């Protein structure tokens, strides 16, 4: 028995009926269709009504699946405005040059790889965009942002070559970024879209699959954010993301589609190149990936346009009165479609058309060649143009275009549709000749035979009609693409006053460094020129971090405003959303937060407006969860602050294993674009943030991101010492508190204790225990950045390797500890590998303590005693080191361990038990 399901956005029976008689007439009409035409006719009419309701944006659920045919019928296709012949000839030049660039990169002695087939399948998709849609930076309405499919990069290089932006020498340096010199000049191209490697060319790194879709969504959202906040008119700018159907299996590719739909981002278009193949074989051999994606995107609220078949199919479909051809199209699997294009017209006739006598009759007078010339929609410029035009004119929702193509298209029978196509990087001599003939280029067999590894590139002179057409179209659309432009405006940064409060400390009040940072952020945002450029970004933890204090003032961004009364409306810190809100609240969504961070942190380039993203998150869910996105952010030359809150393995005591961060500084150290700090006090944070603002947004901006770990454990924040070593804070370590000889004499045994972050109070506790109980004088150093100390050391070691007999300044670690007396013991709330980063530059004996292993739920004091990183444990470690060198009796360490009950977890007392988790 068929049961009617509910309408997704509300049962109609719960809504008031404003016209009972009209409703009754509609119901009677439906009954009449069923009675006269049957259930199939009624179903068709209802589907058409739903389709029209979707077009008119009525707000009822759309169809999640349609037949395997083009969404736009021929009768609704606009006239193609371009010169069809010239554009065909241009595409052939591009196909040749793109393939030959990769082929030449396989010449003897090089063999660096590359991909030919992806661009071959998507050339038409790109060229229709380049010639008619993609707006350059100089367009009056602003430039579009285009996320090019990573494996299609040869096509973008080939186009830049035709435009004169790249030369043959550049193309021959493909994938040889440090070794391809021409007349003493390095001329090279990276494998994929890498802004870090080509900062004037590429804008968005995309080849780590799944990152492009999500970043494109948040780029489109950020464009609207700037517009709604009055920072820039972005109403004419469009975001295009070119993706692969195999790439859509990445969870990130589909995971945030609802964000684009909820924000009604009609400034966003996904173009999915459905060549039915991933790297090793079919995406859905037994199924239909285009149908799957259509249902998925429609269900998420997107406008879906399918470009399945080229115009040669139009008369066949028009004649398909019984639906036989559509039924064949619907029932044929992707695996079979792939096999068809790896064979010939006779094969297609037998295994496709002749499966039904009605469809066989349609082509009985056609030759096999006629059948073979039937193309797929993604290779038909008319179908692609129609889809693009419809997408850019649609309002109220983002659009996805599903374009049916063939991987390796136009490259010949050894490439098209083959499983191995993605890995094929060069053409045999016969393939070269066949390809040459297909693209109709004046290259003789003799030229190809003389050096099969170096077929010539082809670029007509500037007076050639094809060249004039290319330049004319790009001038009309606002300039060449891809293109990246750097800094065009600079920020006025806050002065001393903004940092004064935090540097004074907290008096008698105990506050965590998280709160110290939030207070500093509030003070920075009192600067009226600077404040609008700050973009606070939070997942669903604002109250944990104390950022809810911003809710009533700068508000949470929502393109629809706040159309409800929040439950905490009467409270001072009520939840406030606004169309011009400043906070990007992404929900429980760290990956989306980093995508938003990247869009904001590259606004200086994409929009010419420098913005300062400040992303505050659980430190455990930063680099560990979204490390690939942060790596891409570095590649994209993102600037901004990453604040790893609730940092450390023992501070978030009630949360358990997966919340306890014992290693984020190590993960951060793997990203060359990240400057990582682990400060202990508010005044250290003030100097680090000020340095970060000056370094990233000053007169000579650096393309880095600052990662600062802050803690949720309350402590009294001391006043900044008058003679504080600011250079030491910024370089990574400084002497916080020298040991006192009062009461112990100048001949007391010496030691050095290095600590970072929340571990500094334990080091100070150990300093006191050592002196009072054993007469040992220890100096305590605050290590604000193990990572920066290591980075400097490695840079110095590289210089020494290249010039071993040169003269060099000591590293900062060597300079500070070179004359310090006694063994060195280092501690932090992270695993030992964190302080181990500087081991090779520490003179003398070096012992590290750390929270290795899984975290767990317990009190802070118990956790620190368990990991042996608390004050008494540090003291015992110092005594053990002194005993090893013979400076004190070895028994002292044993006595201390017994005195402090080191093996008793319940005896731990280090740290503050207060503070919310």
UniProtKB/TrEMBL annotation:
Residues 146-308 form the Transketolase N-terminal domain. Residues 496-714 form the Pyruvate dehydrogenase E1 component middle domain. It catalyses: N(6)-[(R)-lipoyl]-L-lysyl-[protein] + pyruvate + H(+) = N(6)-[(R)-S(8)-acetyldihydrolipoyl]-L-lysyl-[protein] + CO2. Keywords: Magnesium, Metal-binding, Oxidoreductase, Pyruvate, Thiamine pyrophosphate. One of its GO terms (molecular function) is magnesium ion binding. Its cofactor is thiamine diphosphate; Mg(2+). Mg(2+) binds at residues 245, 275, 277. It holds the Pfam family Transketolase_N. Gene3D superfamilies: 3.40.50.920, 3.40.50.970. The keyword Acetylation does not apply. Component of the pyruvate dehydrogenase (PDH) complex, that catalyzes the overall conversion of pyruvate to acetyl-CoA and CO(2). This is Pyruvate dehydrogenase E1 component. It comes from Tessaracoccus antarcticus. The gene is aceE.
């Amino acid at each position: 028995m068929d049961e009617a399901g509910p309408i997704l956005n509300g049962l109609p029976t719960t809504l008031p009926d404003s016209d009972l008689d009209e409703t009754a007439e509609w119901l009677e009409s439906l009954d009449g269709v069923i009675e006269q035409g049957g259930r199939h006719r009624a179903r068709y009419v209802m589907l058409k009504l739903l389709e029209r309701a979707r077009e008119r944006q009525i707000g009822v659920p759309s169809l999640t699946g349609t037949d395997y045919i083009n969404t736009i019928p021929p009768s609704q296709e606009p006239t193609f405005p371009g010169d069809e012949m010239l554009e065909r000839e241009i595409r052939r030049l591009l196909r040749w040059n793109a393939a030959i660039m990769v082929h030449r990169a396989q010449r003897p002695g090089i063999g660096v790889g590359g991909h030919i087939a992806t661009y071959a399948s998507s050339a038409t998709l790109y060229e229709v965009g380049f010639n008619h849609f993609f707006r350059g930076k100089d367009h009056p309405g602003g430039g579009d942002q285009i996320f090019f499919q990573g494996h299609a990069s040869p096509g973008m290089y080939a186009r830049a070559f035709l435009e004169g932006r790249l030369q043959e020498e550049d193309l021959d340096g493909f994938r040889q970024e440090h070794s391809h010199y021409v007349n003493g000049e390095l001329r090279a191209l990276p494998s994929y879209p890498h802004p870090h490697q080509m900062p004037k060319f590429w804008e968005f790194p995309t080849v780590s699959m799944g990152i492009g879709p999500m970043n494109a969504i948040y780029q489109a959202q950020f464009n609207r954010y700037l517009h709604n906040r009055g920072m820039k008119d972005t109403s004419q700018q469009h975001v295009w993301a070119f993706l692969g159907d195999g790439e859509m299996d990445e969870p990130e590719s589909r995971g945030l589609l609802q964000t684009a739909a909820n924000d009604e981002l009609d400034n966003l278009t996904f173009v999915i190149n459905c060549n039915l193949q991933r790297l090793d074989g079919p995406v859905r051999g037994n199924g239909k990936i285009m149908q799957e994606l259509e249902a998925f995107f429609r269900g998420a609220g997107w406008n879906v346009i399918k470009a399945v078949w080229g115009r040669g199919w139009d008369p066949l479909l028009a004649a398909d009165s019984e639906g036989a051809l559509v039924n064949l199209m619907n029932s044929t699997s992707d695996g079979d479609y792939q096999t068809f294009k790896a064979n010939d017209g006779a094969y297609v006739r037998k295994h496709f058309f002749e499966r039904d006598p009605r469809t066989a009759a349609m082509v009985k007078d056609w030759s096999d060649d006629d059948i073979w010339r039937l193309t797929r929609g993604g290779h038909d410029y008319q179908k692609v143009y129609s889809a693009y035009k419809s997408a850019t004119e649609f309002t109220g929702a983002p659009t996805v275009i599903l374009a049916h193509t063939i991987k390796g298209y136009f490259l010949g029978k050894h490439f098209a549709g083959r499983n191995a196509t993605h890995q094929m990087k060069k053409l045999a001599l016969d393939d070269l000749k066949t390809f040459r003939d297909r693209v109709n280029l004046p290259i003789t067999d003799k030229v190809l035979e003389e050096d099969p590894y170096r077929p010539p590139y082809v670029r007509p002179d500037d007076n050639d009609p094809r060249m004039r057409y290319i330049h004319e179209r790009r001038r009309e659309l606002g300039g060449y693409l891809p293109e990246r432009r750097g800094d065009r405006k600079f920020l006025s940064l806050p002065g001393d006053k903004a940092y004064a409060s935090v540097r004074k400390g907290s008096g008698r009040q105990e506050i965590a460094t998280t709160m110290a940072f939030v207070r500093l952020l509030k003070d920075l945002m009192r600067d009226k020129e600077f404040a609008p450029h700050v973009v606070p970004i939070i997942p669903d933890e604002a109250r944990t971090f104390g950022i809810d204090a911003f809710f009533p003032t700068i508000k949470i961004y929502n393109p629809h405003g706040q159309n409800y009364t929040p439950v905490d409306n009467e409270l001072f810190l009520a939840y406030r959303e606004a169309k011009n809100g400043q906070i990007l609240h992404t929900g429980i969504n760290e990956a989306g937060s980093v995508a938003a961070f990247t869009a904001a942190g590259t606004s200086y380039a994409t929009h010419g407006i420098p913005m300062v993203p400040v992303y505050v998150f659980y430190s455990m869910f930063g680099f560990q969860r979204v490390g690939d996105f942060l790596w891409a952010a570095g590649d994209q030359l993102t600037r901004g602050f990453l604040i790893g809150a609730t940092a450390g393995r023992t501070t978030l005591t009630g949360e358990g294993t997966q919340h306890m961060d014992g290693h984020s500084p190590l993960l951060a150290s793997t990203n060359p674009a990240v400057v990582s700090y682990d400060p202990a006090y508010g005044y250290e944070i003030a100097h680090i943030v000020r340095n970060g603002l000056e370094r990233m947004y000053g007169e000579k901006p650096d393309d880095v991101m600052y990662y600062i770990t802050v803690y949720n454990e309350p402590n009294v924040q001391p006043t900044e010492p008058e003679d504080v070593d600011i250079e030491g804070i910024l370089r990574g370590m400084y002497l916080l508190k020298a040991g006192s000889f009062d009461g112990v004499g100048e001949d007391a045994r010496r030691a050095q204790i290095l600590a970072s972050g929340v571990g500094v109070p334990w080091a100070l506790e150990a300093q006191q225990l050592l002196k009072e109980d054993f007469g040992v004088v220890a100096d305590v150093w605050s290590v604000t950045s193990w990572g920066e100390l290591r980075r400097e050391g490695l840079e110095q070691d590289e210089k020494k390797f290249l010039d071993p007999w040169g003269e060099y300044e000591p590293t900062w670690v060597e300079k500070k500890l070179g004359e310090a007396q006694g063994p060195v013991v280092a501690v932090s709330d992270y695993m030992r590998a964190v302080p181990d980063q500087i081991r090779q530059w520490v003179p003398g004996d070096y012992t590290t303590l750390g929270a290795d292993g899984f975290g767990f739920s317990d009190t802070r004091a118990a956790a620190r005693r368990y990991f042996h990183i608390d004050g008494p444990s540090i003291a015992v470690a110092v005594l053990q080191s002194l005993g090893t060198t013979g400076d004190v009796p070895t028994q002292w360490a044993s006595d201390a361990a017994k005195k402090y009950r080191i093996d008793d977890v319940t005896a731990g007392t280090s740290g503050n038990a207060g503070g919310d988790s």
